Amino acid sequence: MTKAILTVDGQATELPIRQGSIGPDVVDIGPLYKDTGLFTYDPGFTSTASCESKITYIDGDEGVLLYRGYPIDQLAEHGDFMETCYLLLYGELPTAAQKADFDRRVTYHTMIHEQMSRFYSGFRRDAHPMAVLVGVVGAMSAFYHDSTDIADPHQRLIASLRLIAKMPTLAAMAYKYHIGQPFVYPRNSLSYAANFLYMCFSVPSEDYVVNPVLTRAMDRIFILHADHEQNASTSTVRLAGSSGANPFACIAAGIACLWGPAHGGANEAALNMLREIGTVDRIPEFIARAKSKTDPFRLMGFGHRVYKNYDPRAKIMQQTTHEVLNELGIKDDPLLEVAIELERIALTDEYFIEKKLYPNIDFYSGITLKALGFPTSMFTALFAVARTVGWVAQWKEMVEDPSQKIGRPRQLYTGAERRDYVPVPDR
Ligand code: SDX
Questions:
Q1: Residues 120, 113: contact at Cβ < 8 Å?
Q2: How remote is the CA of residue 263 from the centroid of ligand 1, in Å?
Q3: Is a pLDDT exceeding 80 seen at residue 1?
Q4: Are 224 and 71 in contact (CB under 8 A)?
Q5: Could you confirm whether 228 is annotated as catalytic?
Q6: Under 8 Å between Cβ of 353 and 388
Q7: How distant, in Å, are the alpha carbons of 119, 138, 245 from that of 210?
């Protein structure tokens, strides 16, 4: 199948079909408007490929997620987050020497410009960490001028390393500011995940002991959230980047989009939902609300635009939840009890089966993050820390794509036709 024929009013237009390495082929509609005067219409992009990419592949029907061809469960089990960052950025798993060099380069960019810490005192203490992150990441454009020229490959590399390296520091500072504790500087002797937990949970008055089980869980959570094809926030980063905006501004735009409860904000919303349900006996009431056409309530952490099967990340997340709760000696967590029973009921309910609604990554992540000691308000900020490498990798791919141009969609206009101005006395 190499072309599609579109016939409008008897006029046939040939549209080339392009094949991917795996997954659906695409109809190239580039010539459509020129040849037919028609636009396509797909407001949620449910059938639209916005770009060509080699980074992440998702098979929603089979519940498959590949980072540069490697299955997410293998990377989560055998790899670590820095290795995953290298893979997403450069397309291949690093050799031992390449990994050591990459770890070192990221480590030596974890500190932020000291003056940036003054931004935090401008926020109210109860400011949502995502509001802080949107602000301070955007402000990086004002501090790192030597890595904002996107035409310079070296500056693109430095900006990428700075974003990946500094996001944990900025997020940890948002948390510390939120709880009124002093900022903790990064330590170069710690791994990426251990450093993040250290910057969040250590205090100057006592030594911090790294817990290898919790560190491994944090690292795995970062791997699971690292990239996910052309999701809403990644598409936001690509669109912002297509105008030539600097990388810090583009990532700030991605953070803003991720905050929404239909996207990255769902982990915070899912835990709040589990808290609202409270006990297993109240689950039927919420299931009924989720099914009701008149009630806007949805089961947060359920459903996905692409996955019409179990989100492969959710399975790994569930395993991680049990590891963390066991390590912390947390038995019979009421929220986990509600989550497991809610999942069991939902997966046997005709409504959820017919609409192919399964738990997604956000369903279990909140329970794990709460057990690790994070407040609910930090959950989406943690998602942003992990997703930064995916955003950066996709931004880099777009900038380096010779065929890329500014993204400028058109519309179906249904507003008023041309009409003349009417002076006020005549209205
Ligand atoms: C993430 O895109 C990505 O890759 C995102 C992400 C990533 O890694 O970047 O995977 C991260 O955002 C995961 C998704 C987190 N969001 C939530 O958990 C919020 C709850 N889920 C829904 O809001 C919803 O499922 C979406 C937004 C995730 C997907 O919505 P779609 O694909 O636009 O589907 P839809 O809203 O058209 O729903 C289809 C039907 C509707 O019923 P009908 O109008 O056809 O009768 O399913 C129903 C919906 O009402 N439905 C739900 C539901 N999700 C969809 N009903 C109850 N509870 C839900 N959670």
A1: no
A2: 9
A3: no
A4: no
A5: no
A6: no
A7: 29, 31, 39
Is the shortest distance between the CB of 362 and ligand 1 below 6 Å? yes
- CB 99, CB 86: distance < 8 Å: yes
Quick: pLDDT tens for 203-214: 999 999 999 999
Question: Ligand 1 centre and the CA of 352: distance in Å?
Answer: 11
Side chain identity at 306, as an amino acid letter? V
- Our answer to whether residue 149 is catalytic in this structure is no
395 torsion bin: left (phi>0), alpha (psi -120 to 50), beta (else): alpha
Per the confidence metrics, is the pTM higher than 0.90? yes
Q: Tell me how far apart the alpha carbons of residues 63 and 74 are, in angstroms, rounded to a whole number.
A: 14
Could you say which of 103, 109, 304, 311 is catalytic?
A: 304
Q: Is the CB of 238 under 6 A from ligand 1?
A: no
| Rounded (10°) angle between helices 379-399 and 266-277 | 160
Q: Which of 57, 225, 263, 277 to mutate to test the pocket of ligand 1 (most atoms within 8 A of CB)?
A: 263
363: Cβ contacts below 8 Å, ≥ 6 apart: 270, 300, 301, 302, 314, 317, 339, 343
Residue identifier of the C-alpha nearest atom 12 of ligand 1: 263
Q: Is 289 in the pocket of ligand 1 (CB under 6 A)?
A: no
Q: What is the pLDDT of residues 188-246, one digit of tens each?
A: 999 999 999 999 999 999 999 999 999 999 999 999 999 999 999 999 999 999 999 99
